[in-house]
Design a protein that fits this description.
Phasin domain-containing protein; mainly alpha; about 120 residues; about 80% helix
Length: about 120
């Protein structure tokens, strides 16, 4: 479940990880992460861990960008279920929106990777 008390610390770590591990995916993550931080939206430890690993893996070339998006969709789906079950509807809706964006991003990146051979 998303932890509001840790939002600034966790989102700050994501921002630093994206800066230190540059990639197109990292630029996307930084933009979304910043907007969510400004909106006061929390992030669960599991999603935080996944995003941190994704940023490093994509930057180092050990993970495809499409894989990173699909991993985010999976952790955000679990987060949204937890938020809804706790009555945190707005947080759950934001996480559900993240699931949809990442599924679209994953499909788009899969097509791009196949077209470019990456």
């Amino acid at each position: 479940m998303s932890d509001y008390s840790q939002t600034d610390r966790l989102r700050g770590q994501i921002d630093r990880q994206a800066q230190e591990n540059p990639s197109f995916y990292g630029r996307l993550v930084r933009g979304v992460n910043s907007a969510l931080q400004q909106g006061g939206f929390g992030i669960s430890p599991a999603s935080h861990r996944s995003v941190m690993e994704n940023l490093q893996g994509v930057s180092q070339g050990t993970m495809r960008q499409s894989t990173a998006h699909f991993r985010e969709a999976s952790t955000f789906a679990r987060d949204s279920i937890a938020s809804y079950s706790q009555g945190r509807i707005i947080q759950g809706e934001m996480e559900r929106f993240g699931v949809m964006l990442n599924l679209i991003g994953g499909v788009g990146m899969t097509a791009w990777e196949r077209m470019t051979g990456q």
